[in-house]
Amino acid sequence: MADSHKITVSQIASEAGVSPATVSRVLNHRDIVKEDTIRQVENAMNILGLPLPEVNQSASKIQPVILLNVPDINNIFYTEVIRGATASANAHGCHLLISQSPLDYGSVSDFYSLIKRVNAAGAILLNQVSVELLSQLNNIIPIMQCCEYNQDSDLPYVSIDDCLAAQNAVEYLISSGKNKIAFVNGPLSYKYARERRRGFLNALEHADISTPSNWIVQLPEVNYEMAYAATCQLLTGDVIPNAFFAASDTFAAAVIRAAKRYKYHVPRDIVVVGFDNIDLSSMFTPTITTVSQPKFQEGFTACEMLLDKIANPLTATRSILLDTELVIRESSNQI
């Protein structure tokens, strides 16, 4: 019989033809793993001469923990995403634990510690994460990217086509007769900001419209006051925009406030389009035309796909891009 003290999880995984993370789930979360996978791992343990784990009935009733990592819990965009993921987790008898932190080489050790401390079964990431860190994390627990995703990674994600959605929104502004269009954007470290900027520029290029470089505002975070200050600067120039495309509804609200300060009427003088369709967009005055992103569905689908990935580790998980919709409201309706 083999010396069990010298046999590693990686050796069991190699013998079973699965990943080390799958072996860990069989040993720690067998209640959410398919029977075929359990048998595969246990057969490998038999071959290696290892004793099979005892099935603790009380432990099997413990609800598995799914981690959901967000960059900033104060950003109200994430509220509906979290609500969707929670609905899925609850339906499957799992706990959803929210973790707020960046995921980079300086902070990932804390996330590793959290995974170990709560014995997490999987993680949903709303952060922009490097390919290397994604790979390292996925070797520990199954990972699902949500909203944000690394375009160079082969790990699955649930998101939207930010470029196409932004391009459609700006083409709507152009079709409304607007040709002096400014853009208020978030940090380019995020995929959504890079892609929405690309969509903005694509729409202008297709319409043969140019825009001054200072009319493309890049902010370091989604912050109302920063967006307000930046817009005030644009509205005191010799030539001012007659339309704004904002990468978030928070930015769009700030643009409308700045326009009011300088006695410009929205939408008669300046048309404003936002992004995300958060609750603020329908409560603000005027109500904000915006790109509706299916936030609840993104969170729900990401959790469903993650749980399926946990249960079926040998089956490839396909990524999903959900549809968006331009919701026309008062900030662009000049009728």
Tell me the major beta sheet. 6 strands, parallel
Compute the average pLDDT: 90
Structural class: alpha/beta
User: What topology, given as strand order, has the largest sheet?
Assistant: 2-1-3-4-5-11
CATH H-level superfamily of the largest domain: Response regulator
Describe this structure in words.
The protein has three domains: 56 residues, 434 Repressor (Amino-terminal Domain) (Orthogonal Bundle), CATH 1.10.260; 126 residues, Response regulator (Rossmann fold, 3-Layer(aba) Sandwich), CATH 3.40.50; 132 residues, Response regulator (Rossmann fold, 3-Layer(aba) Sandwich). The termini are far apart. The mean pLDDT is 90. It is built from 13 helices and twelve strands. It is α/β, with parallel strands linked by helices. Strands 2-1-3-4-5-11 form a six-stranded parallel β-sheet, with helices on both faces. Strands 7-6-8-9-10-12 form a six-stranded mixed β-sheet, with helices on both faces.
Features:
single chain; 335 residues; alpha/beta; 434 Repressor (Amino-terminal Domain); Rossmann fold; 3 domains; 6-stranded parallel β-sheet; 6-stranded mixed β-sheet
A few lines on this structure:
The protein is of the alpha/beta class and about 325 residues long.
Question: How is this fold's topology laid out?
Answer:
Blueprint (H helix, E strand, L loop, with lengths): L8 H8 L3 H9 L6 H13 L9 H4 L4 E6 L6 H15 L3 E6 L7 H11 L3 E4 L5 H8 L4 E4 L10 E4 L1 H14 L5 E5 L5 H16 L9 E3 L5 H11 L8 E4 L2 H13 L9 E6 L3 H4 L5 E4 L2 H17 L8 E3 L2 E3 L8
Parallel strand pairs: 1-2, 1-3, 3-4, 4-5, 5-11, 6-7, 6-8, 8-9, 9-10
Antiparallel strand pairs: 10-12
